[in-house]
Amino acid sequence: MDERKVLRALRRGSEEALGQIMDHYAPYVYTIVSNFLSPAMSQADIEEVMADTFFALWNGAEKVRPGKLKSYLGAVARNQARQKLRSRGQELPLEEDVLTLPDPSPEEQLAEREQEELVRRAVLNMGEPDREIFLRHYYYGQPVAEIARVMAMNPATVKTRLHRGRVRLHKQWTEGD
Questions:
Q1: Does pLDDT of 50 surpass 90?
Q2: How far apart are CA 14 and CA 16, in angstroms?
Q3: What is the per-residue burial (b if ≥16 Cβ within 10 Å, else e) of 157-174?
Q4: CB 144 within 8 A of CB 151
Q5: HEC states along the chain?
Q6: Has residue 127 got a pLDDT over 70?
Q7: Average pLDDT over residues 130-154
Q8: pLDDT tens, position by position, 96-107
């Protein structure tokens, strides 16, 4: 699928272009949405959020830059799933009064943001397909078997790449200190 051409056609209102995008990215969007909503919601709810995600793409096609379609869909899918949970009053898995954590100090907040930025940069600097495997597993919560199926890889290869990625991140982390 040529993303530039499909996005251009989508911006012109091509339903066929939307169909191509849906055919290509439906498993990806499904995984994100189901990881957020299962088992709290039904299959129909998951499908509704998927439809909302592609509808948001249809309405916001002008915002999507070539090469960024996948990340755009991932972000929209996560936001739509969160919205669905909130609409059902299921935003927090625990009652608020069950666990009360003290607010982090400004120094702790700064250190946490710096750590998050270091990890984000390290993951984004991974080569493909390692970056995609790492993001699918640790960010979107996909199991190894699903990643292997979607990416047409052996599950053992996926596990090896995840292990090597963790080793690289650990090495970068410890050398950065």
A1: yes
A2: 5
A3: ebeebbeebeebbeeeee
A4: no
A5: CCHHHHHHHHHCCCHHHHHHHHHHHHHHHHHHHHHHHCCCCCHHHHHHHHHHHHHHHHHCHHHCCCCCHHHHHHHHHHHHHHHHHHHCCCCCCCCCCCCCCCCCCHHHHHHHHHHHHHHHHHHHCCCCCHHHHHHHHHHCCCCHHHHHHHCCCCHHHHHHHHHHHHHHHHHHHHHHC
A6: yes
A7: 87
A8: 444 445 566 788
Q: What gap in Å lies between CA 57 and CA 177, rounded to an integer?
A: 42
Question: Other CB atoms closer than 10 Å to residue 155's CB: what's the count?
Answer: 14
Q: Tell me what the pLDDT averaged over the chain comes to.
A: 83
Long-range contacts of 135-140 (CB under 8 A, 24+ apart): 136/31, 137/162, 140/31, 140/32, 140/35, 140/74
The residue length of the chain stands at 177
Verify cis geometry, omega within 30 degrees of 0, for the bond prior to 27: no
Cα 144–33–12 angle (5° rounding)? 115
The answer to whether the beta carbons of residues 140 and 74 sit under 8 Å apart is yes
Distance between CA atoms of residues 149 and 67, nearest Å = 23
Structure token digits, residue 100: 């009360």
Nearest to 147 by CA among 28, 38, 43: 28
CA distance 37 to 93: 12
